[in-house]
Write a structure and sequence with these properties.
The structure is a single chain. This protein is mostly beta strands. The chain has one domain.
Length: 125
């Protein structure tokens, strides 16, 4: 199987209309080195949204940090009151000591998110 470039994976994610979609779930299972992300999206020719799951597999690092600094408008009293929406996703292919990895950075207001993993799978429910 041919490994997709970071730009190709990024384009496939973009084709699901994930930008401006609400993040439904984001979990890191450290014992499995797996990040699971879910959101509602659609392809351009579809009317109804479907749930998409993105699996970041064999993660070497995953960092998620929520923050309030610089938040405008409504400021939640608790992080549980916050909804997170994708603004941009950047995926770059890197090589470390001969290991080919994806470096992922997501722009999600009020959250910093960075992942370094070996593979990425996009699954439509």
């Amino acid at each position: 199987m041919v490994r997709l470039s970071g730009q190709e994976v990024e384009m496939r994610l973009g084709n699901t209309n994930c930008i401006d979609s609400e993040l439904k779930e984001l979990n890191y299972d450290q014992s499995k080195h797996l990040v699971t992300m879910k959101y509602m999206g659609s392809r351009d020719n579809e009317v109804e949204e479907k749930e998409y799951t993105v699996l970041f597999k064999e993660c070497f690092s995953a960092s998620f940090n929520t923050w309030l600094e610089g938040a405008g408008g409504y400021v939640p009293q608790s992080p549980i009151e916050s909804a997170f929406f994708f603004q941009a996703i950047s995926i770059t292919g890197i090589e470390v000591e001969g290991v080919h990895l994806y470096q992922v950075q997501m722009v999600i207001p009020m959250m910093d998110c960075q992942i370094t993993c070996k593979s990425i799978a996009i699954v439509r429910s």
